[in-house]
Amino acid sequence: MASISLPKHTLSSVFPPTNPKNPSCQILPILSSASQSQFYGVKLSTRSYSLSIPSSSFSRSSIFAKVSKGDVPPSFTLKDQDGKNVSLSKFKGKPVVVYFYPADETPGCTKQACAFRDSYEKFKKAGAEVVGISGDDVASHKGFAKKYRLPFTLLSDEGNRIRKEWGVPADLFGTLPGRQTYVLDKKGVVQLIYNNQFQPEKHIDETLKLLQSL
Amino acid sequence: MPTLLHPKYPYLGLGCHFRRNTCGLPRIAARVYCSTPSTALDEPPPPPRLPTSPPLVATTRRASSAPLLDDPSLRSTWSHRAWVAAGCTSVLVSLAKSAIESHTWFEPLVAGLIGYVLADLGSGVYHWAIDNYGDASSPVFGSQIEAFQGHHKWPWTITKRQFANNLYALARAVSFVVLPIDLGVNDPVVHGFVGVCSGCIMFSQQFHAWAHGTKSRLPPLVVALQDAGVLVSRAHHAAHHRPPYNNNYCIVSGAWNKFLDRNKVFETLEMVLFFRFGVRPRSWSEPNSEWTEQVDNPTPLQVTLTQT
Predict the structure, then answer these.
(1) Is the ipTM of this complex over 0.90?
(2) How many domains does chain A have?
(3) pTM for the model
(4) Is A23's Cβ below 8 Å from some Cβ in B?
């Protein structure tokens, strides 16, 4: 019997927030040609920003900047699969692979997680940490990590707040949360952004390639 | 007198089952009923036998709920035959109307070819949906879903279904759709498409049954058409019956399978449906009793040995 369960993450939480209280709030997309998400691998290396500029000084500003190569992404604190708070700043001083994936227990994400697991020793050898982020809750991450014996941290980005802050693009006209991986160097600067929805194992190859050159 | 079945996979006794063969057919345990030869009065006397232990005839009966070979559910009824007749009539009328104006044969022919191609795609989409969503209690499609699940448990059953029994459900759907078109439309191009498309859809279950057959038991023409890619091949369809059961859904020619699987079309649809409606397809779960082909479990079998 097919199971019916409402996803913890809703599609609306994937999209950037609008501000109904301030309809004059404008969003100026300044996008480079390489910034659109594609299915089969896009390395983003140019700067691009989407800014919302409030017209009234009394309105609440909703500024978010998409993280690009060369940026130091905004820090965050999220709960891991054991319910403990984990901050991005904890990993400063070593390279970090932060990979955003759609959801636990889906075919592509399982392949990707298992591929990271199987190559984990290579990541450790490169001195890097691996962190997976999705909108699933702590319990889902715990089950997922246990089932597939994942040795790395999974963070629960409920409401997809960090996904939106970092500007991870959605796929298929916004119907699918994007699959995007960032590699941060020891100083916390983004050195690689790799996007590929349907070839999840390639994320491991591309990130390892870069880590070995850092 | 029980008859010999599946000579390539004789059931030799308790605890015996066979690995997948080189064609990639799923693991099956066939039941063998050995026939004792009868000798006519005018036949020459048999040669003298060496002293051996007396031959035994083993009859085995499956203790699970799998249909037996003489199960009434595999036989055609008059209702089944009526629906198949209605379906065939609708299709033939449509084809006749497509050929009625001989000077316009090219366009109806091209339309027919498109119908054949799209029938394969349609069979894949329908098969994917039925295999992955809903259950026996679903409205309209519940019985179909249950039948497809049963097919995954006992794939061999389809080769034992009588013709009308196998096709009547599709024939019924085709009758309801094609008959109004037969009555209301006179365009030969439309009928070229409709006739061929509906005919292929109606007979897809027969193509499917042939894809579960063994080469030696199929008509040579069928084997040739399978090898040529005109009909879905045994090897390609066998891949659908192996974990993770999420590929090779098309069952007319199977021509769309490579494209759909390589481009992860169904996986994409599954993801979209999951994020949109929260419904997980069955193929995402670990293979369980709903999918896994049932192999004879030796313990509950009843084995009756009789001496000849």
Answers:
(1) no
(2) 1
(3) 0.72
(4) no
